[in-house]
Amino acid sequence: MEVQQPNLQPVIEIRPAVIFAFIKISGLLLAAAGFLLLAWRYFPALIWLSLAIMLFAAYRYLYIRRIRYLITPEYLQVNRGLFFRQVDTVELFRVKDYILEQPFILQIFRLMDLHLKTTDPESPEIWLRGIPLSNLVEELRERVLETRKHNRVYEIN
User: What's the predicted TM-score (pTM) here?
Assistant: First the structure.
């Protein structure tokens, strides 16, 4: 969903993919199934452990799916949390480096992790995990350069 800003650059909203959330909880689901099998075969009380693991897996799935990355012409905002929301905001002119990572499993599902290094003391690194493969790095780079020019921020090495 894109919303127009006054300077004609749209706001980009990105969420981790459903398959990424499922990949992240697949180990928990396998553990829950294993304890369920053990409960059925040997010790019925293990069903409670299996249920607890399933509930934690459901919580992790919902947590990952509720993460929202919002990129405006001036800042990057990361919203996360299920019961307690946390909002991190970083000015775009503080972004220094972009690292695109694609482990094999993410390549299969056409997803990527984007690692941003910033000069912000509170958020020196920002991870955009499990997002759909796109030209986001180029778009973000253009916005960072435009924001630096607009705010008259110059890098001195």
Answer: 0.83
Q: Are 76 and 116 in contact (CB under 8 A)?
A: yes
Q: Which two tokens stand for residue 61?
A: 């799935």
State the helix-helix crossing angle for 18-41 and 46-65, rounded to 10 degrees: 180
For the chain, percent helix, then strand, then coil, each to nearest 5? Answer: 45, 30, 25
- Reported as a pLDDT band with limits 50, 70 and 90, residue 130 is very high
Residue 151 to residues 45, 93, 133, 142: CA-CA distances in angstroms?
62, 8, 30, 14
pLDDT band at 57 (very low <50, low <70, confident <90, very high): very high
Give per-residue pLDDT as tens, 74-116. 999 999 999 999 999 999 888 899 999 999 999 999 999 999 9
Torsion over CA: 77, 79, 80, 85 (sign):
positive
Phi-psi label, residue 93: left if phi above 0, alpha if psi -120 to 50, beta otherwise: alpha
Q: How far apart are alpha carbons 39 and 52 in whole angstroms?
A: 13
CA separation for the pair 91, 144 (Å, rounded): 9
Residues in the chain, overall count: 157
**Residue in 115, 149, 146, 111 with CA at minimum distance from that of residue 130:** 111
